ABC transporter domain-containing protein (Lacticaseibacillus paracasei subsp. paracasei Lpp123), 227 residues
Amino acid sequence: FIQIDDKHKAFFNDFLANVAVVRNLNVFAYSRQRHADYFQQAAPSMRQMATASGALAGIFNGGVYLAEVLTLMVGFAMLTVTGSSVAGLLGAWNAGVGSILWPFLGLAPTIGFLAQQRTSIDRVLPRLTQQVMPVFSPMKRDYQPDTIKIRGTKVSFHYPQTNREILQHLDFQIHNQGITFLIGANGAGKTTLLKLILNELQPTTGKIEIQGVPAKIKSASLFAFVP
C-alpha cells in the first residue's frame, strides 16, 4: 500500500512539473487515465484502512460509553443497597467515573496519528539509512598533443642602425617535444633569434615558418620566452 500510495500522491506533483509538456503534446486524456489507474490500485487499501480505522474508533468510543453506563448502573445498585440513593451522590459518582474515562475517547485518534507517523518513518528511514557509494566512471579521452615545428631557412638579420650581420644564412628547426637550448656567447644573437620567431623583428633575408605557415601569421600569444 505504501508504494501505491506514494505513486498516487506523486502523480499530481509530476503532472504539475510537466504541465507544459502535457499541454503541448495534448495528452490530458492519457494523464487522467493514468491517475484513474493509480486511484483504482489504491482504492481497495484505502477502503480497508478506512474500515479498520472506523472499527477501532467505534470500539474505543463505544467501549468508553459502555464502561460509563456500566459503572453508573453498578454505582446506582450499590447506592440502592446501602440506602444512600441520593441524586447528588449519583451525579457525583457518574461525573467522577466519566472524568476518568473521558480522556480515553482521544485514544483512537492518537493511535491513528502514531500509526501514520510509523508509516512515514518506514517509508523514509530506509532511504536515509541506505549507504549509497558514489560510482566513479573513469573518463577516457584520447589526447594527442599538437606537434609544433618551427623552421628557419637562410635567416639573416641586422639592425637598421648597423650593417653588422647578427645572423647569417641560419637554418634551424625547433620542436615543442623536449627542450631546445640556444648556446652562444653574449651578443651572438640568441635573443634576436627568439624575437624573430615571435615576429617582434623581421628577418633581413630568409624566412621563418611555424607548421609551414609564415611566423607573422601565427599569434605571438602562443609563445613566450625569458631572456
The two ends are 78 Å apart (CA to CA). The longest strand covers residues 149-157.
